Fold:
Amino acid sequence: MNLVRRSVLKHPSGIKIETPLLIPSFSSKGCIFPKSKESKYTFFQTNTELPKKENPTSGKISEVAVFLINALGTLTNSMLVSAYDIFHKHIPIFYESSTPEIIFLDSGGYEVGDTFDYSTIIRSTVIANEWKEEYYKEVLEAWPDYVPAVFTSFDVQGESIEKQIESAKQLFSRFRGKQLCAILIKPVSESDKTFTKTLSDMCDNISKLKDFDIIGIADKDMGNSVLVVMQNIAKLRLKLDEAGINIPLHIFGSLDPLTSWLYYISGAELFDGLTWLRYGYFEGRTVYYRNNGILSLGIDKKDDFIRVQSMNDNLYYLMDLQLEMAEFASDHDYDKIQFNGVFFKDAYKNLCKNIEKEI
Structure:
């Protein structure tokens, strides 16, 4: 059973996006909003008259905007930003300046939802501005054709896969041929903790998924253990292969040296997340900033320096990891994996054993 693969996505602009792809993400969720901040950067201008209400985040520049501005010099390959943050001016837009080769535009469901990804340090109360599909469309329509992007479908919670597909196709009808389009699958019900019902529904509608460039699913939605998530990725990948559909799978919220590898050997090809902003990557593991500073930089460095340096080091780490994963797709040599090669080999054997029991 061969689940590992590489793909080449051809963007309408002419650029080619090669997988595996590790995508650094930015989100205002859980970030600090200062009372006021001057900025020389351009922010999105909405044509919609927003409702006036007390909200400490409205129109403020979030902490994540500073991270984004500082990281742009190193981000050359890809990044993911939220349309919610662009619309509400939490982060600047960089249409006219240096940007990564491809920008993944998320639909904003994460920022307004009451769930957090697994890397979240503090699960604070979400203070969200109003958000609806009308606002998302406004961001999409304002996006210049000359800035290559992947548009993600608007979150449709608790609906059948058939309805999610139809909703995504309607949203993307005006943008096909201009940008790549990814459908973000959501569980068909809140009770589907192991993704069993959702996966079954996807398999029943498998041929309808061929109309998208990428199929995305959030890590937290795919199961209640890492092994269950791996099995669901593998089952979906095998079902797509059986139907002759070579669309790559994008796992949202899984950007770290362990889960990215585990989901890659299970059949997924694109990974994004916020761990690179929150932690440090050290020898195949994710550690909190203070420990990362001690191990990588010494005990005499100031905390602010450790944070900035860790972010930059993480980006270079992801570049090297991406190359390592691409090489693995060619030779499947676990011994060449710099860290945890034996662990990943055992995990793959465990995955195959569980999958074969169900086939």
The chain is about 35% helix and 15% strand.
